[in-house]
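Data's thin. Show one?
=====
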Amino acid sequence: MNIDDTIAAIATPAGEGGIGIIRLSGPDARSILDGIFVRGKAEETTINPRELTYGYIKDRDKDQIIDEVLVAYMPAPATYTREDVVEINCHGGMIPLSKTLQLVIRNGARMAEPGEFTKRAFLNGRLDLSQAEAVLDIINAKTDSSLSVAISQLQGNFSMEIERLRNRITDILVEIDVNIDYPDEDIETLTYKKIEEQLNNILEDLRQLLESASSGKILREGLNIAIIGRPNAGKSSLLNALLKEKRAIVTDIPGTTRDTIEEFANIKGIPVKLTDTAGIRESDDEIEKIGIERTRESLKNSDLAILMVDISERPDDQLQQIIGSTIPEKTILVFNKKDKEHFISDKKQDDLIENNGRRFAKALKVSLTSEEEKGNSIREIENAIFDLSGYSSEILETQNRSMERSRSIVSNLRHKTMLERAANSIEDGLAAVRQKAPLEIIEIDVRSAYEELGFITGDSVQDDIIDQIFSRFCLGK
C-alpha cells in the first residue's frame, strides 16, 4: 500500500438506489475530477470547495456521457482523511457507478483497500486507533445503546481517559528515573511509598474500566440465542414473533426448518442474534441431518438458549436427549401451546423444570396462537432474556457509574485485553514496590503498563495489528 496514491471506491451499498457515491482521497483527487467532469452550464467553469456542483461524468476518449451527477470537492486538511477528497453522487445503479469508478481508475486513482479511508484518517492523525475502531462499531450498531457507546468512543472520550492514565504513569516513570539517576536513601524511601499510592490509584481506575467490559461486549456484539426443540414445537413461530415479521416458514409439517436461520432483534435495548434451528430428531434425510448437526453447533456457541417444548405432544426419549444437551443455567424452558390439550402434565412440567437437580434458569408457559396471547407471551420471553443477559443489573449499574464519573464503557475485546495486561503490569510493579525491589525492576513493569495502554490508541502498536483492524472494514470506508 502506497499512502501517497489517490484512492477511490464506491462508498454506498451494492444494489439499486436513489444515489450511489464514489469517494476519492489523495493528492490527485481534484485533477482526476477535472479530467472527467463537465459542468451542467457551459458558462460556469469553477468548482467551489465544499459545495455541490451539478454536471456530468464524461469519458472524453469516447466523447460519451456516463451519468448526470452532483460532485463535491473538499480540500485538505479539513476532511475525513486530511487529504483532498472528492465525492461523486451518481444515480444509484451498478452500471453508472461501476463505469464511473472505472473511469476514475483510468485517470490515475487506484482501488482503495477495505478500510483504507479510515486508515488514512488514522495515519494522518485525525483519529487515533480506538476512534477508528469506533467508526466500524457505529456502522455495525444494532441498538441505540450500542450506538451511543460507539459515538462516545468516536468523539474521543475513551481515548482521553487512556491518555490521562498514561500521563499519570509518565509522572511515576519520571519519579523513578530521577531516583535512579540521583540515588539518595531518604528520597528513595519516600518514593517507594509515593509510588505505591500512585500505582494503587491507577490500578483502581483500570479495574473500574474493566468492570464495564462484559456489559460493553453485550452492547457491541449482542447476545447469541439459539432456539431449539423437537420439530414442530413452535421455534419458527417464536422467531417470527420476536422479529415481528414472517421470516421463517411455519407449517404443521415436522422438519420444515432444515437449516439455521439467523436474524438480529432489538430486545429491550439489547442487540440479540436469534438462531432458529432445525428440530432435533432421528432422521434419514441427509439434508435434515446436516441441519440438525448445525443446530447442535449453534447451541454450543450460544450465550443463551430457548428450549421450546410442545405440551400438546407426549414426552419421549428424544425430548430427554434434547434437554440433556442444554446448559440449564443459561436456558429458558418454554412450554408452548398451553391453550391446547396437555399431554405433559403439570407434575411432569415441574419435573422437567427441576431437571434432576439442574434447574432451568427460567420456565414459562406460552401460546403463540391468538394475537393477545402471543403479545403477552412474547413480553414474558423478552423479559426473561433481559433478566438473564445481566443487562438489568450489571450493565445498568456500570452505565450509571460510568455516566456519574464521566467514564467510558469498554466494548472492544482488543481494548479489554490491553487493559488487562496493563493492570497485570501495575500489579507486578506494586508487588516489586512492596518488596523494596530495585527501582530499575519496578520501572520495567510500570513502563510495560504505559506501552500496553498505548496499544489501545495506536501510539505503540505494530503495523500488522493495524492492518488486521482495518481489514474488517468495508470498501469505501
About this structure: Confidence is low (pLDDT under 50) at residues 248-259, 402-406. The first strand starts at residue 7 and ends at 10. Residues 230 and 319 are 7 Å apart (CA to CA). The chain is about 50% helix and 15% strand.
